[in-house]
Specification:
The chain is of the alpha/beta class. The protein has a single domain, classed as TIM Barrel (Alpha-Beta Barrel), CATH 3.20.20.70. It has 14 helices and eight strands. The protein has an eight-stranded parallel β-barrel with strand order 1-2-3-4-5-6-7-8, surrounded by seven helices. Helix 3 crosses helix 4, helix 4 packs across helix 14 and helix 8 crosses helix 9.
């Protein structure tokens, strides 16, 4: 019997999710789910092989709307069309991200989440297969709480701290995406040093969140995200889900080195972590006290918004 690849080994105890808008690259890795964001959609929309999607979004709206309204509708449709293509390939769910510039507007986030779900449902996709992706601001968490009560599942992204994770669990959010690599980037820049995988601050952060959820019986799924190297992934083997870029999926597929489970509910229940009671004041204080989380959340929102603007400029040239 031939040795199994690290990717196959990982799939035994973690749901593998592909982090890409390039759905053609999905097939070879057979992930269960896929995630997208404005940066990935912008990248994919410029690829020649996906021009048919851009053209369809334009053609479907050109006769119905004009001006800024036309642009908004085309971009929303484009986002959904990429999701639909991905859903033809993955058996599970796709995460579709709402506009970053709505990150502090609960009502607007709720409206956009409902709008995306209605577009998917018009295309025959059940809401169970969609995760509405929202930044982990206080307002974002409140919007997701409302959507969850309506049976619209959410993925809270740009999550860098235990306070954000606990607020999501308290709000009964379906899934969170704590960012590993971006946490490590921050500490690497600050402390001017490299980190071994087991000491990686991003890895440690996700382990802490996972332990908290499993110890206190929260149903919210933990999906580690934003990986910089394979070591970060193997250290989190056993996490509920991991969303991984195609280049790192390819590395895992090439290696047959043994991969051991590092996270489990049993180990988590033995952890010394304590319950964290939260209200809005406490959340905002703890978040503010965490310079890394404050800076990386803000930076992430800015960068997704910048790529959304670039996408809008790109689409405008097609109108």
């Amino acid at each position: 019997m031939s040795a199994s690849t690290q990717l196959d080994q990982l799939k035994k105890f973690t749901v593998v999710v592909a982090d890409t808008g390039d759905f053609a690259s999905l097939k070879q890795f057979a992930p269960r789910d896929a995630t997208t964001n404005p940066s990935l959609i912008f990248k994919a929309a410029q690829m020649p092989e996906y021009q048919f999607i851009v053209n369809k979004a334009v053609a479907d709206n050109k006769t119905k709307f004009g001006g800024k309204e036309l642009l908004t509708h085309v971009i929303d449709d484009l986002t959904i069309l990429f999701g639909l293509e991905i859903l033809k390939i993955v058996p599970g769910r796709v995460s579709t991200e709402v506009d970053a510039d709505l990150s502090f507007d609960t009502d607007a986030l709720v409206a956009k989440g409902r709008h995306f779900i209605s577009l998917y449902e018009k295309n025959g996709i059940a809401r169970e297969r969609i995760l509405i992706k929202i930044a982990s601001t206080w307002e974002g968490i409140r919007a997701a709480e409302i959507l969850q009560r309506e049976g619209i599942n959410c993925n809270l992204t740009l999550l860098f701290s235990l306070a954000q994770a606990v607020a999501c669990a308290d709000a009964k959010i379906k899934l969170i995406s704590p960012f590993v690599g971006r946490i490590m980037d921050w500490y690497k820049a600050k402390e001017k040093k490299e980190f071994a995988a087991a000491e990686d601050p991003g890895v440690i952060s996700v382990k802490e969140i996972y332990s908290y959820y499993k110890k206190f019986g929260h149903a919210t799924e933990v999906m580690g995200a934003s990986f910089r190297n394979v070591g970060e992934i193997t250290e989190l083997a056993g996490c509920d889900l991991l969303t991984i870029s195609p280049n790192l999926l390819a590395e895992l597929q090439k290696s047959e080195a043994p991969l051991a489970r590092k996270l489990s509910p049993e180990l988590a229940r033995e952890s010394k972590i304590e319950k964290l009671p939260l209200d809005e004041k406490k959340f905002r204080w703890l978040f503010n006290e965490n310079a890394m989380a404050t800076e990386k959340t803000a930076e992430g929102i800015r960068s997704f918004n910048a790529d959304a603007q670039k996408l809008a400029q790109f689409v405008a040239t097609k109108l």
